[in-house]
Design goal:
The chain is an alpha/beta fold and 265 residues long. The protein has one domain (12-66, 104-117, 140-263): P-loop containing nucleotide triphosphate hydrolases (Rossmann fold). 48% of the residues lie in helices and 19% in strands. It has twelve helices and eight strands. The protein has an eight-stranded mixed β-sheet, with helices on both faces. A hairpin with a 4-residue loop joins β3 and β4. α2 (25-38) packs across α12 (250-263) and α6 (90-101) crosses α7. The radius of gyration is 19 Å and the shape is globular. The two termini are 28 Å apart. It binds adenosine-5'-triphosphate and magnesium ion.
Length: 265
């Protein structure tokens, strides 16, 4: 009985973006959140801002009380103070602080990783935090992760297994070079497991044939093509959340297709 319930249960979807700086990772995640909430397929949705610059928060119009970077600092301080009775409660502390860091908006919850202040190797702390995020993620059906250019932060502090990894690129040779570096990190260095690895062209203004050839050279499936959309730039310029785009925005329509035809296909 429990087995059949399990097989009926929807598969949890962890979806992350990466790619060269400024290619549209954050805008894409914000639009994906909007599209997934609208079509009701997200279930319980968690958004993780894994970029220390925390651009996703403004793209969503959300603020947080505490970042995971701050949680990490507290734990390192407690561990350094060396009081045995405090150290024994580090697990409970993490759980409590994680709940404080989890911000609930109307349609989704948000967790911001924030900055890592204390440098040096704190692998045990990182793996404690990763473990607690993994435990927390059990409460959600879909998790969208906005990353930096590379995958280091996600890999070290968030998760090591993804359903889909979307490499976002603009239609430039430099964007595609970064995409190539990332696909090697996955396919050759195996730094992370992912079922789907797709390329997303963003700010597209024609030349689709050339873009298809470029993706084929990298042996990457095209997960989607998002056109240049003036309204997205405008929203970012005036500080209006990307999630407030008009329903017929060309960028948002392309992201709906990306979700339906690639991520959830
Ligand atoms: N499809 C689009 N059409 C027009 N402008 C876009 C589009 N996608 C993103 N932009 C604009 O491009 C800029 C960079 O986008 P965004 O911040 O999402 O990139 P990013 O990859 O997250 O950057 P970073 O690497 O700094 O985190 C923003 O000004 C955004 O408004
Ligand atoms: Mg960003």
């Amino acid at each position: 009985m429990s087995e059949s319930v399990e097989t009926m249960e929807k598969e949890k979807k962890l979806i992350a973006v990466c790619g060269k700086g400024g290619t549209g990772k954050t805008a894409s995640i914000a639009m994906m959140a909007r599209a997934l909430v609208e079509d009701g397929r997200a279930g319980r949705l968690l958004l993780i801002d894994a970029d220390p610059a925390m651009g996703l928060l403004s793209a969503l119009g959300v603020s947080v009380r505490r970042t995971m970077g701050e949680v990490r600092e507290e734990i390192i301080k407690t561990a350094k103070r060396g009081k045995e009775e405090e150290k024994a409660h580090i697990g409970d502390m993490i759980e409590y602080m994680l709940l404080e860091a989890l911000t609930e908006a109307d349609d989704y919850s948000v967790l911001a990783m924030g900055r890592t202040e204390t440098l040096g190797c704190y692998c045990p702390v990182n793996s404690l935090l990763r473990g607690s995020i993994e435990a927390l993620s059990k409460n959600f059906d879909t998790i969208l992760i906005d990353g930096e250019a590379g995958l280091e932060q996600i890999n070290r502090q968030v998760v090591r297994e993804l359903h889909s990894l979307l490499i976002i690129t603009d239609p430039t040779a430099r964007g595609l070079e970064t995409a190539d570096v990332i696909q090697r990190m996955i396919r050759v260095d195996n730094i992370m497991e992912c079922q789907k690895l797709g390329l997303v062209f963003n700010r597209v203004r024609g030349n689709e044939e050339l873009l298809r050839d470029a993706a084929a050279k990298l042996d990457l499936d095209i997960a989607g093509m998002i056109p240049f959309d003036e309204i997205i730039t405008e929203h970012d310029l005036i500080g209006r959340p990307v999630t407030d785009l008009p329903a017929d925005s060309p960028g948002l329509s392309a992201v709906r297709e990306l979700i339906g035809n690639y991520v959830l296909a």
